[in-house]
Amino acid sequence: MATPFLSALKNTRAALAAGALFLLTAPCAPAQSPTTQPPAEPDYQALLDTATAQGFAAFSQLQPATEDEYREYIHLLSQIVEMRAIIQDNEESLGIVRGRTAKILAQIESFKPPAVSPDTSLGLYDEARLNLWQAENWIAALEKIGDNRTAQASKAFDDLKSAQQKLQSMQNGGQPANASQAWELQLQQTRVAAALAEQSVRANTALWSAELEINKARQQLANLQIAALKPVASFPANLLQSLLDAVDKDEESFDAQIAQIEARLKSFPTRNPAAGDEALSAVLLECPQNEIQLLDYRRVLLMVRSQILQGRFDLWNSTDGPSLDRAAQSIDDRAQDVLVWQPLIAGFRTRFEQRRQKVETLLAARPQPVPAAISDFAGKSIDQEGAALSAWENEYSALTQLISLCKADAGEKCKALGLAKNLDAAASTVASQAAAIWNTELFTLSESVVVNGQIVQSPSSVTLGMVLVALAILIAGGIASQAIARWLRARLTARLQLDANTGAIVETFTHYLLLIVISLIALAVVRIPITIFALLGGAAAIAVGFGAQQLVNNLISGIILLFERPIRIGDEIDVGTYSGTVTAVGTRCCKLRRNDGVEILIPNSVILQSTVLNHTLSDTYARKEIHVNLAYGAPVEKAMELILGILKSHPDLLKTKDPNVFLANFGPDAIDLRATFWVDQSTSGSGTRIPSEIRLAIYNGLNSAGIAFGLATRDPAQPPAVEPPVH
Q1: Which of 137, 226, 314, 425 has a C-alpha 20 to 30 A away from that of 252?
Q2: Please, how many CA atoms are within 13 Å of residue 291, restricted to the half-sphere of its CB?
Q3: What tens digit of pLDDT does each residue of 371-404 get?
Q4: CA 460: distance to chain centroid?
């Protein structure tokens, strides 16, 4: 039911269209009485022909138009003529489409299941399905076109409304005062006429509705035919044989055609009337050569077609899931082969059109007139190649339709088998594909076997499954070997009181020894011969020499560090700009932990090749020293005794090594005392806490004794030294 808004909109559009038609035909003079008939509509085709024949120079003498306005005027007239031609064609097509729709509806009303035989049922069934798919594609395309037409009609209506308003404004200004205003009014009237013509085409949906209606009728008729033919359709063996015989006949005809083309090639030099034109002759010689190549391609399509027909026969006559799945898989494989041809066909078509255009260009460049013999020979050569190319394209299109029918057959057969059989077929397919992938041969090795005293080379295949099993054994064995190595280290450390460094050596070499054993076991389980390493030795040597030399260098350096033990776990070392405690010595790098908790990974080769300062190589004892500055005049001996007493009384200093206090130097501003003492670096806080406590005790003791610290004294006339900034 139409809403008041839609009704008002339709009435408005009708009024605007009628008003536009009146404005187009009305003269520029003031409005006449309503009873006066408007003048006849201009002949836009005649106006277009006249304006085009005159050209801009002559037209500008009649009308004060600029060159841009002239081009716009020609364009508007062309648009009006084109739109009117479209309207006329649509009216003629509308009657034809409605007549065909009536015939299809009559067939639907009087539909009866056709009488079929086993040999014809499948062909009729395929034809009905193709008609259904074609109708469905047309319906989808027309619905999309309808959406675009709605948007285009809305825009055309807005353009028409704007042009009419501008024309009405110009007419309200009265009679044109000069030729320029009269021309502007005429140009605006033409704009309105062009907008009205376009709006009429865009808004007229009669032909679109008729095409949509006929395709829906085709869809309905195809569904009736499919429902009637589906229960009786079959694919007997004699039908397959007749189809294969047709393929053989086509192949025999190809042999005869190739013989004819080869005869044409041999006689080309004598038959070619353009023998003197080398460029044209070279292009025309390509035509029969391409025909032979196209026939070879068509022969391959015939072979693929026969394979698909055989697969379809197996598909139709399958009674169980696995056989149905095998037939469907064979068809899918052939379909993948067919898809490869699509860009090849497009490329042939492009080159053919380029060759055709080149022939036309070469003929146009010859002195006129071109002899009829040459033009006829060139046209015949191009037409023969074009016919061969079209035949190839048609056969390819028919083959793709056959593949679509086969895929539809597979879907219907799977539904008919039921869920249980479909699951069995799917399981069988997955199992077969998995087995095929598992048994995929990666490479083959030759193994020497002694037979009756003679060495015989026996080929040994290495499959993907063997490699995956070997990888699984290696991964599981690697995890197990690492766990075993850690367990053995813990037991030996507990029983034999091993230090951390010796425990790391035991763990590392146990892990690698077990990995070697597991690798040999993995190779033996999957029957990969050990000779594979002989074949890969050269590649491994190249890899080590170029890509892995640094890795091997670090590995060997790590082994040296583990056995030579220049550094051990827990040592305080300085390497270059890094310093800290060694926490791990690995086969690739060593871990160094700084006092702030940051861990540094240093490659083993760097440690061996650099100067390493090891504070705890022989023992864990380290000497520390503290400088104390006293003011001149202070009791030095008393201060030294006080500092020495503080050192001896600290509980965390080594008792086996006595502390000392020395008068180190007479500085410019103070007396420099140096206190030395020994600490065990394995004691917590030996590097920071103990020196801090001693400094604090010295500071408090000297203050309590009234001994003054040295102060910096300078001459007021001398400016203080400025130290450079530290970045």
Answers
A1: 314
A2: 25
A3: 888 889 999 999 999 999 999 999 999 999 999 9
A4: 39
Q: For the chain, what percent of residues have pLDDT higher than 90?
A: 20
Residue type, 563: F
8 A C-beta contact, residue 465 and residue 439: yes
With cut-offs at 50, 70 and 90, classify the pLDDT of residue 538: low
CA distance 191 to 171: 14
CB-based contact 331:311 (threshold 8 Å) = yes
- Considering Cα of 273, then 274, then 280, then 282, what sign does the dihedral take? positive
Rg (CA), the chain: 50
> Running DSSP on this structure, what letter comes out for residue 386?
H
**Looking at beta carbons, which pairs linking 16-22 to residues 24 or more positions away fall under 8 Å?**
16/157, 16/160, 16/161, 16/164, 17/160, 17/196, 17/199, 17/200, 19/164, 20/160, 20/164, 20/192, 20/193, 20/195, 20/196, 21/196
* Beta-carbon count within 10 A of 153 CB: 19
Query: Chain-wide mean pLDDT for the chain?
Result: 80
Other CB atoms closer than 10 Å to residue 298's CB: what's the count?
Answer: 18
Cα separations (Å) of 555 from 587, 608, 614? Answer: 5, 12, 22
> Are residues 198 and 190 in contact, defined by beta-carbon separation less than 8 angstroms?
no
Element (H, E) at 613: strand 612-614
Task: State the average pLDDT over residues 307-320.
Answer: 88
Q: What is the pLDDT of residues 34-51, one digit of tens each?
A: 444 555 678 888 889 988
Angstrom distance (rounded) from CA 63 to CA 181: 10
Q: Could you give the 3-state DSSP secondary structure of residue 3?
A: coil
Rounded distance between C-alpha atoms, residue 48 and residue 194, angstroms? 13
Name residue 275's amino acid.
A
255 and 295 in contact (C-beta within 8 Å)?
no
> What is the DSSP secondary structure assignment for residue 654, as one 8-state letter?
-
42: Cα within 13 Å, side-chain hemisphere: 20
The rounded distance, in Å, linking the Cα atoms of 680 and 651 is: 12
Which of 280, 258, 269, 288 lies closest to 386 in space, CA to CA?
288
Helix (H, G, I), strand (E, B) or coil at 471: helix
- Calculate the alpha carbon distances from 587 to 484, 504, 563, 601 in Å: 18, 10, 12, 12
The DSSP bridge pattern shows strands 612-614 and 578-585 to be unpaired
pLDDT in tens, 626-647: 889 898 888 988 888 888 888 8
Burial class (CB in 10 A: 0-12, 13-18, 19+), 246: middle
Identify which has the larger pLDDT, 724 or 120.
Answer: 120
In which band, very low, low, confident or very high, does the pLDDT at 15 lie, cut at 50, 70 and 90?
very low
- Phi/psi of residue 721, nearest 5 degrees: -70, 140
Work out the end-to-end distance of the chain between its first and last CA atoms, rounded to an integer number of angstroms: 86
The contacts of residue 717 (CB under 8 Å, 6+ apart) are none
Answer whether residue 1 shows pLDDT above 50.
no
Q: What three-state secondary structure class fits 583? A: strand
Q: Which of 163-177, 504-518, 530-544 shows the lowest mean pLDDT across its residues? A: 530-544
Q: What is the pLDDT of residues 668-719, one digit of tens each?
A: 888 989 999 888 776 766 777 888 888 898 988 888 888 888 864 444 444 4
Other beta carbons within 10 Å of 344: 12
From 361, 356, 405, select the one nearest 384 (Cα to Cα).
356
484 has a pLDDT exceeding 80: yes
Q: What residue has token string 């390497």?
A: 575
> What is the DSSP annotation of 440-455?
-EEEEEEEEEEETTEE
